[in-house]
Specification:
This protein has 110 residues and is α+β, with helices and mostly antiparallel strands.
């Protein structure tokens, strides 16, 4: 059973449609490959996470709210990278340690 039309004009029309469709598919493939290349380059050039992060309060001059390890998933948007010594100072000054990443345990402050 042949599912193609028997006459030449309809076969030419089908050929044109298939060629256009193939071009669109190739363009989509090229775009997807470009996105994948950019994603890989982004991963390769991403800086390492900081060791310690201080989560800041809302408003200018607000006190910090929590100390986190650099790879903690619970860090808020208002943050500042800090050194180990600054993290120790903040914890001993009463800034709360994150309950998810437990920086106080990593720093030896309990």
């Amino acid at each position: 059973m042949n599912d193609l039309p028997p006459d030449l004009p309809r076969l030419r029309t089908l050929e044109t449609w298939l060629a256009l469709s193939l071009d669109r598919v190739r363009q989509q493939i090229a775009a997807a490959e470009q996105r994948e290349k950019e994603r890989q380059q982004g991963e390769e050039h991403r800086p390492p996470p900081p060791d310690w992060v201080l989560e800041l309060g809302i408003g200018v001059g607000a006190p910090p709210t929590e100390v986190h390890t650099g790879d903690c998933y619970a860090i808020g948007k208002r943050r500042r990278t800090i050194t180990r010594e600054q993290a120790l100072e903040a914890l001993t000054a009463g800034v709360r340690a994150c309950v998810h990443c437990r920086p106080d345990t990593d720093l030896g402050v309990l």
